[in-house]
Design a protein that fits this description.
The chain is globular and about 90 Å long. The longest helix is centred in the first third of the chain and has 13 residues. By secondary structure, it is mostly beta strands. Among the domains are: 200 residues, no CATH class; 200 residues, Sandwich (Immunoglobulin-like), CATH 2.60.40.1190; 119 residues, no CATH class. It comes from Antarcticibacterium flavum. This is Carbohydrate binding family 9 domain-containing protein. Keywords: Signal.
């Protein structure tokens, strides 16, 4: 699609969507309203609701069911009553959740942002009442808290602010008391606030969820169905300035060497205005981040890892627009790391070759104006890294820059309108000092609903520019989709395109380019219980995949899936697909070549039992069978979970994969490419356990062992032909392609949240790693070899203290 056609379509969609969303939703129900009461003295946040100030404050209630029913009134035996007050510092919520049988209330002790198996009360606050951007606050019946930044129906629980809550259980049910300081919210400076508000309650043993303001699940997004909180007058947004100084110490022991390290630094947040916040990390310390789930990777693509650093996950909803930001690029392996390994001269050994580019500092500015314009700016800087070589004959050393001083930038403009639609401009830029690769990507995105919320139109146009020392390469990608978003029967079509030079991998992540793909889907789902089911959906889908240059078909497939959850919270489902012959242009590792893979049938089935039980089980079994080919694949996942008590919880995970006779890349020759039939087996065992003394202190354990062996069958080596077929050859690869991979990681931590926003973490971890060519060894023999490797052990302590400018100022005043 040309840029002119794309622009014309966009203008048509925008002109079709002028009316406000409140008008669109008025056919369903008018939003509820509640007027908050100003108070002179703050209540004690202890969950008891016996403070005198609560006695004269109006109450609201009449919650309605959202799951499994659709708007059913709350049970007479389980009514919910809420009161809201405010003063110059914060808003206060008192919620009474009546229950005729208090002994049945689920009350599992967990840490922050982990609800576990507990009843809970939530309140969503949209200070700009735009139907899209909310902050969610949750308190469980055990007193644990969770908070999230919400954009539409996306929940980001990495978002943390400082607030307080407590819960108690009595003969009438349970109670929650909440204090949300204004410093935890962004709101406009005006005489009277009008906030969107939604409240909810989960009753676990009944498997029911209720909300204060009715939500029509068949139309639009839940965020559009907030009620109105009025009456908050003459409050001033506080100076939103907070500091998180930290100190850390660690001891690392490996292979008879012991190293110690002491570090100190600070993160801070500053409210530039009532809508915009600056977050910065100075002298970052990521020593206690969780380990990556590393696997034996024999694919042509890098392995993608999740982000474990809080700064890069918290409040990043603007920067992830268009999937152009893969935060692991920042502080990743230097771009010259592998080249430094290869370019070692005769008689040289490598003394140093850093595996990561150290982060110097990072900051982000984000917020949204009164006109729903979201603005984001992100910047990070990494230092120069060098490889150091020693000539063993002359004893001279030399250096090679593997990663220059680098600057990473993101700028985002996101205009929301009609409470559910948006237009977005985003630019990412990576600039490296000197004659190295630079990258720049710009994108325009739209996500538009029609007036009745029955159709959604989405589109993206992205342009990449990679600046090599002597060449600038420009690429382009786009996507366009139309989906029915109302009612039980839904359907949609979409198209994805990228030319052969599209590349966003300086700050983003894309595995493939040069495609021209078409997709379709249709589904049927229910919104109210039917028979034994609380919910189920059936989906049919298909695709037609093409290469852009040359314009040829790479594959076609159709499939179907099913999902269901019963009234007793037993969930199950699965899928099956039939795919045509597939031309893989990436497995050969040489531009313009491809290998043919036979048509196949694949699928899986899965079950997930009721997590409310002391014992629950998740299991998935999958297969892939190739027609007229000995190639086959089987995978199994089993994950039993044990809630031994309300304080002690454990989850065990077992994963098994077995791939047989897969034609796979072995090595490149000057004019030929060698393939071989590969058998690959892998086993993963993992344990996650936690014991919580209360909601502020707990011990957590994480363990993972992953083993994988890749065996290339003898006498099965082949040469790749121009037509993608493979022919037998007597040529042998220069290096043994077989591999045996084994890794072990163990983390044991004690976490103590000793004050709001402040915590201390004591962490012990150890790890083992082994990679060799003994692929004929089984799991047990490989594990024995792994246990013979030197053990890396690390002990660290990190203390973070929260300081709020307003509290510090008041102390000095008094």
């Amino acid at each position: 699609m040309s840029s002119k056609s794309l622009l014309a379509l966009l203008l048509l969609l925008v002109s079709f969507n002028i009316q406000s969303q409140e008008e669109n939703l008025s056919r369903t129900t008018s939003p509820k309203k509640y007027e908050a009461t100003r108070i002179k003295g703050a209540p004690q946040i202890d969950g008891r609701l016996d403070d005198q100030i609560w006695q004269d404050i109006p109450v609201t209630g009449n919650f309605v069911q959202i799951e499994p029913g659709d708007g059913n009134p709350e049970r007479e035996t389980h009514k919910t009553f809420v009161k809201i007050a405010y003063d110059d510092e914060a808003i206060y919520i008192a919620a009474s959740m009546r229950d005729v049988a208090p002994q049945t209330i689920f009350r599992q002790f967990t840490q922050r942002d982990n609800l576990g198996q507990s009843d809970f009360f939530l309140i969503d606050i949209n200070t700009y009442n735009d139907g899209e951007n909310q902050t969610r606050f949750i308190v469980t019946s055990a007193g644990a808290i969770a908070d999230a930044r919400m954009t539409g129906e996306n929940e980001d629980y990495n978002y943390n602010v400082v607030w307080d809550a407590a819960a108690t259980i009595d003969e009438d049910g349970w109670n929650a008391e909440i204090k949300i300081p204004y410093a935890a919210l962004r709101f406009p400076k005006k005489e009277e606030q009008l906030w969107g508000i939604q409240m909810g309650r989960q009753i676990s043993y009944l498997n029911e969820n209720y909300v204060w303001n009715y939500v029509n699940k068949a139309v639009g997004k839940a965020s559009q169905y907030t009620g109105h909180l009025t009456g908050i007058k003459n409050i001033t947004p506080p100076v939103r300035l907070s500091f998180y100084p930290y100190t850390s110490a660690e001891v690392d022991h490996f292979n008879a060497n012991t190293l110690t390290n002491f570090n100190a630094g600070m993160d801070f947040k500053y409210g530039i205005s009532d809508a915009f916040t600056l977050d910065a990390t100075l002298i970052p310390d990521f020593g206690q981040t969780a380990f990556d789930n590393v696997e034996l990777n024999l694919t042509p693509f890098e392995q993608e890892f999740g982000e474990n650093r809080a700064f890069f996950t918290e409040g990043t909803e603007l920067f992830t627009k268009g999937n152009l930001f893969y935060s692991r690029r920042i502080g990743d392996s230097p771009i010259g790391f592998n080249a430094a390994q290869r370019e070692r001269l005769n008689n040289e050994v490598i003394l140093e070759n850093p595996e990561e580019a150290a982060l110097i500092n990072a900051l982000k500015i984000s917020g949204r104006t009164n006109n729903d314009l979201g603005i984001g700016f992100f910047n990070a800087i990494t230092r120069e890294e060098k490889a150091v070589y020693l000539d063993t004959v002359t004893r001279e050393t030399r250096q090679r820059v593997t990663e220059p001083f680098a600057n990473y930038n993101i700028v985002v403009l996101d205009q929301q309108f009609n409470q559910n639609s948006s237009l977005t401009l985003i630019n990412t830029n990576v600039t490296r000092e000197g004659h190295f690769r630079d990258g720049n990507v710009s994108a325009f995105l739209f996500d538009v609903f029609n007036r009745s919320n029955s159709f959604n139109f989405t589109g993206e146009a992205k342009m990449s520019n990679v600046n090599h020392p002597h060449q600038n390469i420009t690429g382009f990608a786009s996507s366009l989709g139309v989906n029915r978003t109302k009612g039980k029967i839904r359907y949609g079509v979409s198209h994805d395109f990228a030319n052969e030079t599209y590349d966003i991998n300086d700050l983003g992540l894309n595995f493939t380019n040069n495609y021209n793909d078409f997709y379709w889907n249709t589904s049927y789902q229910i919104f109210e219980p039917s028979g034994i089911f609380n919910r189920y959906s059936i989906r049919l889908y298909g695709n037609h995949l093409r290469r852009y240059k040359p314009d040829i078909t790479t594959g076609t497939g159709v499939g179907g899936s099913f999902f269901a959850i019963t009234r007793n919270r037993f969930a199950f489902g699965g899928f099956t697909e039939v795919n045509s012959e597939f031309k893989d242009f990436f497995e050969p590792r040489r531009e313009g070549t491809f290998v043919r893979y036979q048509p196949n049938i694949s699928g899986d089935v899965w079950i997930s039992s009721d997590y409310r039980k002391r014992f629950a089980l998740d299991m998935r079994v999958g297969f892939q069978d190739f027609i007229d080919s000995p190639r086959d694949q089987f995978n199994l996942r089993i994950s039993p979970r044990f809630r031994i008590s309300d304080r002690f919880n454990m989850v065990y995970g077992f994963r098994y994969n077995n791939s047989i006779n897969r034609p796979s890349f072995v090595s490149l020759l000057p004019r030929q490419i060698i393939f071989g039939n590969r058998n690959m087996e892998s086993i993963e065992n993992s344990i996650e356990a936690s014991y919580n003394f209360n909601t502020k202190q707990g011990i957590n354990l994480r363990f993972r062992n992953f083993w994988s062996a890749a065996v290339f069958e003898e006498d099965t080596y082949t040469l790749l032909q121009e037509d993608g077929n493979l022919s037998p050859t007597s040529i042998l690869p220069r290096q043994d392609p077989n591999a045996n991979f084994n890794i072990w990681n163990f983390d044991l931590s004690y976490r103590w949240q000793f004050a709001p926003g402040s915590e201390a973490i004591l962490l012990y971890r150890n790890s083992l790693f082994n990679l060799d060519d003994q692929s004929r060894l089984g799991f047990t023999e490989s594990l024995e070899n792994l246990l013979g490797e030197p053990l890396r052990q690390n002990l660290s302590l990190r203390i973070v203290y929260y300081l709020d400018y307003n509290n510090v100022r008041n102390i000095f005043k008094s």
